[in-house]
Amino acid sequence: MKAPSVKLPIFTSDGQFVAHYSEKGLAKLNFPRVGTPRCGVRTSQRDVPSKVRRWHRATVAALKQVLAGRSPKKFPPLDLSGGTTFQRQVWNALRKIARGQTKSYGEIARAIGRPRAVRAVGGACGANPIPVLVPCHRVLAANGKLGGFSGGLDWKRKLLTREGVSL
DNA sequence: GTCACCTTAGAAG
DNA sequence: CTTCTAAGGTGAC
Predict the structure, then answer these.
(1) Protein A120 CA to nucleic acid C1 C1', in Å?
(2) pLDDT one-digit tens code per residue, A93-104
(3) How is residue A78 annotated by DSSP?
(4) How confident is the model at residue A128 (pLDDT cuts 50, 70, 90)?
């Protein structure tokens, strides 16, 4: 039995994101899809618990703030229970990177006390279930270059540019 | 077991 | 400068 999840759409000028909520909070955020925009996504919030609706309002507000290059004043509770201990350490470190700042995979690795797990940090970033709000896009390669981004390098570039980071 | 992945410091050519 | 190597964690096959 999996934790029941509620999927709600978020309409932005950058496309339709989909937020997944578990009992604990926001568990996953998907970038706009070209293929299957809605698959189990609620079109109405009628039968959605008020708790979740409240989280969703926070998610929508926070997402739009980041997309606009600003720092959200409020976040919904994040349910990162889906990751391993190592991944949660990485994601937690990512959340400390402020708007407009960047770090390298190596710096994250050192920050969590695993200076040699550099590539593993890359792996954890790629496994990040909540991109944008957990700013995996603020992690660059050590030489200042973009590095990779599973959601598409366009997004990484776009988000950083809007935050005022020059590449 | 093997491989591919959002990496990187260092050594060799 | 370019190329090669070794080292971590994890999920897919």
Answers:
(1) 28
(2) 999 999 999 999
(3) B
(4) very high
Statement: residue A156 has pLDDT above 90: yes
Q: Which nucleotides of C are covered by protein (CB under 7 A)?
A: 7-11
Q: Are strands A139-140 and A6-12 parallel, antiparallel or unpaired?
A: unpaired
Show which residues of A are catalytic.
Answer: 136
Distance C13 C1' – A45 CA (angstroms): 39
- Please state whether beta strands A103-104 and A139-140 pair in parallel, antiparallel, or not at all (unpaired): parallel
Q: For residue A30, what is the enclosing H or E element?
A: strand A26-30
- State pLDDT tens for residues A83-92: 999 999 999 9
A91 CA, C8 C1': separation in Å?
16
Four-residue CA torsion sign, A90, A92, A95, A97 = negative
3-state secondary structure of A162: helix
Structure tokens at A121: 């940090």
Measured CA to C1', the nucleotide nearest A117 is C8
Strand C-proximal protein residues, Cβ less than 7 Å: A 84-87, 114, 116-120, 122-124, 127
